[in-house]
Design goal:
The protein is α/β, with parallel strands linked by helices and 179 residues long. It has a single domain, classed as Alpha/beta knot (3-Layer(aba) Sandwich). It is 35% helix and 23% strand. The longest helix has 14 residues. The structure holds S-adenosylmethionine. S-adenosylmethionine (SAM) binds next to strand 4 and helix 6. The site of S-adenosylmethionine has 17 residues, from strand 4 and helix 6.
């Protein structure tokens, strides 16, 4: 079976206002099995540093990249064989389209912050909603990545981690593998 790849495109990051949300989008993307997040419009070093620290402690090779022009990013991804999914409350319901999407090997997922321009809807191969109610890009990403991988990402192993959690019914158990 071919390895799947999910890339998240963060559209319209606004300095200061979006720092926390963009960092959380990166954390969710990493934890739920994406390989990379590309932040457009602005460089968010907080998201970059957050992920660097998380990778060092918790493993894996998730990347954060910055490319100013979202259009350039989307067209390049399309050229390299990615299908573009734009998450929007106005799109087709995820439970309706997931059967088609599960079969794809390379998906780039666009999430907005501010109002998303019309061209994004047109360039996307699929405009997909996670409920038709307004909520957040963080929640939409988590639900979408879970649905499209049918929950398999929950068992993902993160290689070369320094810290490892041993799940407990109560309390916390963390092993430092480098000690
Ligand atoms: N007001 C903005 C607009 O009209 O485009 C949306 C802002 S919303 C806080 C930020 C992002 O969250 C959206 O661009 C979309 O990617 C995602 N989002 C919010 N609700 C969603 C939903 N029900 N389904 C899918 N994505 C959603």
């Amino acid at each position: 079976m071919k390895k799947k790849d999910f890339v998240v495109v963060r559209y319209g990051h606004r300095d200061v206002r979006d720092y926390r949300v963009t960092s959380h989008c990166a954390l969710v993307s990493r934890a739920f099995g994406a390989s990379k997040m590309i932040v457009c419009e602005s460089r968010d070093e907080i998201a970059e540093n957050t992920i660097k620290g998380v990778n060092e402690n918790w493993g894996g090779n998730f990347k954060v990249e910055f490319i100013q022009d979202w259009r350039e990013v989307v067209l390049k991804l399309k050229k390299s064989g990615y299908k573009i999914v734009h998450l929007t409350m106005y799109g087709m319901q995820v439970q309706e389209v997931e059967k088609k999407l599960i079969k794809l090997n390379k998906i780039a997922i666009i999430v907005g912050s501010q109002k998303v321009e019309k061209e994004v809807y047109e360039l996307a191969d699929y405009n997909v909603s996670v409920t038709n109610q307004p909520h957040s890009e963080i929640a939409a990403l988590a639900v979408f990545l879970d649905r499209v991988q049918q929950g398999k990402e929950l068992d993902k192993k993160f290689l070369k981690s320094k810290l490892k959690i041993i799940p407990q019914e109560k309390g916390k158990k963390v092993i430092n593998t480098k000690k």
